[in-house]
Structures are given as C-alpha cells and as structure tokens.
Amino acid sequence: MKKISLFILFNLLIISSLIAQSDPQIDRPIQQCILQNPDKVSLLKKEFSIGHWLGKLISNCEKLQSSSGKAGGPHVVVLLEMEKELDELLVLAENCKNLSDPKVKDNLTEMKKVFQAKEKVETFQKGTTNTENNNTLFDEDDEITTMSITRGGAGKIKNLAEKIKKTLKK
Question: Which residues does 146 contact at the CB level (< 8 Å), separation at least 6?
C-alpha cells in the first residue's frame, strides 16, 4: 500500500513538472530581450517563461469564469498581480522582435484595455481617521479601494492570451 502511494505521488510530481515546463521556442527570444533590456523591467527575470505566464493567465481566467458569487476573489487577485508583468511586456514590445509582431502587440494592448476597465471599483471609508494623537507604528489608510475583473473581462483576457500563445508558437 505504501509503495502504491509513493508511486502515485512520484507520477503526479513528474506530470506536474512536465506541465510547468517552458516552451523554449517561444520563451528564449523573450528571455533574450529581457537580458538586453534590464533597465526597462524589474518584475520579469531572465528565466521568465511567457508560455508559463500565458498558461497561468488562461487558467486563472477559466477559474474566474467558472466561479460563482464571491469564490472568484483569489483568481482576481492573481490576475491583477499579473497585470504588472503585462505592463513590462508592453514596454519590451517596443524593442523585442517577437513581442513587436503586430498580432502579439495588438493583443497585449487589447488585454491591457480589458485590465484597465476593472469594473466594480469601489472605495470604502473606514470609521476612524488617523490624527496626530492616534498615530501608531502601523498606521492604516482611511480608505480601502477594491478592484474586480468581471467574468466577461476574464473571458476576453483568456481569448487574447490564447491568440498570443498561438501567434508566438508559429
């Protein structure tokens, strides 16, 4: 029984590592561009995998679309974090051959427009305000701003990411 469990666990680890592997055909040119433009990026590291990034983007969009009610929150958080990397990819698109391809760059730009639409942006006022008498080491803001991506927006982002991946693989 113990051997079977170990065998299954080992196989799952192998399968997950195969899924997470990068695609050198599409990743290496982007990695080279990152190395040539270190002053233009801070989040994208030299081992950045655009294939993995697009896969993660697609996966989180699918999870957000299939969620109901408030269950999509964690996926929205991941997508909003990925927007920062999208910004750097757009900066690299000015100097990077693969990213400057009109089909890729237009889809990246369109994806950014969907992110900028972040519907349901709300600002909540807290009940207390910080005054000179109330200052503490960990002062908090008086406002909390929440942002959300709609399921429809996630669908658009997913479709654009799939188009980019397909274009880069050509």
Answer: 120, 121, 122, 123, 124
Q: Is the pLDDT of residue 48 over 80?
A: yes
Closest by Cα among 94, 92, 145, 85 to 112? 85
Enclosing H/E stretch for 124: strand 122-125
Count of other CB atoms within 10 angstroms of residue 130: 13
CB-based contact 158:107 (threshold 8 Å): no
Higher pLDDT, 135 or 42: 42
104-113 pLDDT per residue, tens: 999 999 999 9
59 pLDDT more than 90? yes
For residue 52, the surrounding DSSP H or E stretch is: helix 50-66
What are the φ and ψ backbone dihedral angles of 75, each rounded to 5 degrees? Answer: -75, -35
Mean pLDDT of the chain: 79
Angle at 80 between CA 107 and CA 105, to 5 degrees: 15
Q: Whole-angstrom Cα distance, residue 167 to residue 170?
A: 5
